[in-house]
Known about the structure:
With 281 residues, the chain is an alpha+beta fold.
Amino acid sequence: MPELPEVDALVSFLRAKVVGDFITRADIGELSILKTADPPLDAISGLEISGVSRVGKALIVEFDGLELVCRFARAGWLVWHDVVPTGPVKMGKGPLGLRIHLASGAGFDLSEAGTKKNAAVSLVSDRAEVPAIDKAGPDALSIEADEFTSALAGSTSRIKTVLEDQELIAGIGNAYSDEILHAAKLSPFAPASGVEAPALLETVREVLGRARETLVELPPEKVKAAKKRRLRVHGRTGKTCPVCGATIAEVSFADKSLQYCPGCQTGGKKLSDRRMDRLLK
């Protein structure tokens, strides 16, 4: 799923491309992507795009009096077209969820690969009408030290869970929480309340800040590959840690997995992989 650095890259790209342009048409490719009915989606036809912004991991396209809130799912992304394809959009066929046509002839798609369709688009007069936006915690790159400390100290969860909780800290997902904990030399299973908050916050800012600087000038089609090249542990199970040389390990859950370095983060110990444990019984 796109996280703070990638969505900031999309925001930067779209601001330069679409602000001041007008919507001519919006085509739905996957009915489940649209989460609101009033106002109808065609209400944006003819409107000028006044801005593009981000809240947490959500991309927001702004108009005068309306906002299109786009929340990417795990396999979701934005595809830019200098010239929008002219063929008809076939409902439920392929990854296309929503296609936006602009007066300039350009446009963009919100897409989602795979069979599970969890991406969400909401057209609202105020972004706070979208519960995920209304409940979003402070942004991970601007959260104050006291807010970050309170989020950790007041939790009974593991530190990875807290970093990914969008109501506590907005913008961090599975990939960057793995990267942050690796850089901080913390086990993903460490109790959040016992973590030294100021030091971890500095690492959060360093990891996300460096990623953002790398990605923010790139076009959408290059962002995901550039992100992957920067990752040290996430998605690299079985490979060598670039810091200590240990073999990167994984813990699998029902719908996702996390990666970590036993050498850097857990004193050489392997964390229990509960899915594999069940298979071995």
